[in-house]
Amino acid sequence: MADDSGVLFDIDGTLLDSTYHHALAWARAFRRHEYSEVTVAQVHRAIGLGDDQLVPHLIGHSNDAVADAHSDEYAALQDEVQAIAGLGTAVAPLSPGGSAGGAGHQRKGQGSGLDVAADRGRGERCRVRDL
Asked: Buried b vs exposed e over 26-55: b needs ≥16 C-beta within 10 Å?
């Protein structure tokens, strides 16, 4: 029988330093759809709201095209997103055979061995580089 155990994290903005990338992606998405009055600073203050709340908060109504554009814009920035400093050490005990200082302890440049994927919402999945 296979071991299907796992751990679920809310990684976006918590374990991955993605807040500014999302703010920039949202601002570009709004501009793409001619909402140039929405600034990066306004978006940054609204980060944390789901797209079902963020879009109406900033422009007064829902707009699926803006939300879709955000996904595209964020995808273009995703390679620049970095894990929060020290994350590899923090999650090392969760990796196969890992421990916080034993054989599974991660040295700089080594991956954790964790298979990490993220769900960007609305069924879009993406791979996050090895932590």
From this structure: bbbbbbbeeeeebeeeebbebeeeebeebb
- Token pair in block for residue 30: 């709004």
Q: What is the pLDDT of residues 41-84, one digit of tens each?
A: 999 999 989 889 999 999 999 999 999 999 999 999 988 887 77
CA–CA gap between residue 69 and residue 98 (Å, rounded)? 39
Q: Where are the domains of the chain?
A: 16-127
DSSP state of 49: B
Sign of CA dihedral 61, 63, 64, 66: negative
